[in-house]
Design a protein that fits this description.
Layout: H1 9-23, H2 34-43, H3 49-61, H4 67-72, H5 75-82, H6 88-104, H7 107-111, H8 116-124, H9 131-141, H10 151-159, H11 169-180, H12 184-200
Helix pairs in contact: 1-11, 1-12, 2-3, 2-9, 5-6, 8-9, 10-12
Bound molecules: iron/sulfur cluster.
Iron/sulfur cluster binds next to α10.
């Protein structure tokens, strides 16, 4: 059973407003089609986004950015296209698994009719797709109100003193979703802003002097 965590709704929203004021709208997720967003979500694990862009550019150049082309590709060729994204053999296997499943399910035109819980359950059933990747896909490709939890979310909110950072994925996801209410546009921007803030300001070694959240932050200046 998922443990319960209650986040202070007003503070969660205030953090969002400050981040939005500081960084502006992020317009995530980069990708021309829902399928490209799904591919990006699978390839972005453990690598910088610029590397994902290079791998996706390879797929486009080879006219292979489609589930059928990916499933039909020779494993070695697929690995070569994905090489810039790192761990390319593992990612090639994951992407092929995902595309096989996607075609079996009837693609976007069928999957879009599933309710959010059923869709999440189905995406999570794909070998190699964990909760963060599944929720990136649900939020950014299917526009469903699921809050993505990642290492940046844990770092930022534990430093703010709002979570311990050790909670389970589902505990944190439920807590943010409950505090904010279902809102795809808000979840889209909020996750993007957390990533930007954690990369630019609340880094491993934080720049607290430049941080719009320093007032009220449990770790400011430390
Ligand atoms: S004040 Fe420092 S520790 Fe707190 S959120 Fe900002 S950068 Fe992170």
């Amino acid at each position: 059973m998922t443990e319960m965590l209650k986040l202070p709704a007003a503070r969660v929203r205030r953090v969002y407003e400050r981040l939005h004021e500081a960084h502006g709208p992020q317009h995530w997720w980069p990708g021309e089609t829902p399928f490209e967003i799904m591919v990006g979500a699978i390839l972005t694990q453990n690598t910088a986004w610029t590397n994902v862009e290079r791998a996706i550019a390879n797929l486009k150049r080879a006219r292979a950015l489609s589930p059928r082309a990916i499933v039909a590709a020779e494993p070695e060729r697929l690995g070569e296209w994905l090489r810039p994204s790192g761990y390319f053999n593992i990612k090639a296997r994951r992407l092929r698994n995902f595309c096989t499943w996607y075609l079996e399910q009837g693609g976007l035109s069928r999957l879009k009719w599933l309710d959010t819980q059923a869709l999440r359950h189905a995406v999570l059933s794909v070998n190699g797709v964990g909760p963060e990747t599944a929720d990136d896909i649900l939020l950014y490709a299917f526009e469903r109100p699921v809050f993505v939890i990642d290492a940046y979310t844990r770092r930022l909110f534990s430093r703010l003193g709002m979570i311990s950072g050790e909670e389970g994925y589902e505990t944190l996801r439920h807590a943010f979703e409950h505090a904010l209410g279902p809102d795809v546009a808000l979840f889209n921007e909020y996750h993007a802003l957390i990533v930007v803030h954690a990369k630019d300001i609340c880094r491993k070694k934080p720049s607290c002097g430049d941080c719009v959240l320093k007032r009220g932050c449990a770790s400011a200046g430390s």
